[in-house]
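Record 1 of the preview.
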Amino acid sequence: MLRPGRSRPFSPQERDPNPAVQALFAGIRSLGIPIFENQNGRIMEANGGASVADMRIRDGKRQSVFRSYVFPRMDQPNLTVLAHALVTRLTFEGNRATGVEISYEGSTRRIRAGREVVLSLGAIHTPKVLLQSGIGDEAELRRFGIPVVQHLPGVGQGFQDHPAFCCLWDCPQSLPTSLVPDAIIYGKSEAGLDSPDFQILQAVLSPADAAKFGLPARGWALIGNVVQPKSRGRIRLTGFDPADPVQIEANYLSDPDDPKAALACVELCREIGNSSALRPLVRREMIPDNFERSKLDNYIRDTAFSFWHQT
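->
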């Protein structure tokens, strides 16, 4: 398949001659799925497509944002990183944030801001700290005896995540394992959608995971997830103390469009995994196997898990 703007076909095998990778992309092509140069840009505007996975890897390790951008500047005088410091609350003068309260080395300390306070604690702990600081729904705050600084009922609302699902095959021999998936696949559950609403990547089951879940030692998986979920949940406090756990109400698959996308995703996983190109590498489909449509819907609801993309 020719890529737009290229004079020759793009071949993922140019980047990875692994026979398993070659078979995987052959199976993808056999279903008429176009191959793109990477997983960004035009593939997001297409009806679907696949590409080699795009990851930051150095010396065999996946690089985090911290490792890539912060760690090289740790010696700068205007940067201080406190490891094992737990941010518990914002501090205020009136309704103006002046700094943060932290639990550090067995005591509670306060750090005053010179200019501004930026909370960047992720989709779960950012609303948790705001609520503990008195910013959120007044009724919720009063329930735990937290003084109200600002009634802001949207705090903790609108939680979303990518629900994921696994299709698993037993392999006649161990496949080469890699740190990252070799392929990323995007698809649409309906032709009229503006952009793909589900994603698939492949993974090799580790012997430890196989033993833990009673699965074949040589398992090969396609993991799909809904990339534009419409379901929304919320984050709630369970108590006044910052050490009290947060309550996450994810509400996976509560919007009727999300199960539709999930079903289309799982069906495409099975088509790829059971394609003739991959037949020499897989012995049989283990999960979900030949479920009827109603059972497949139940399988998706019963086995959905977080893809760790909370926002």
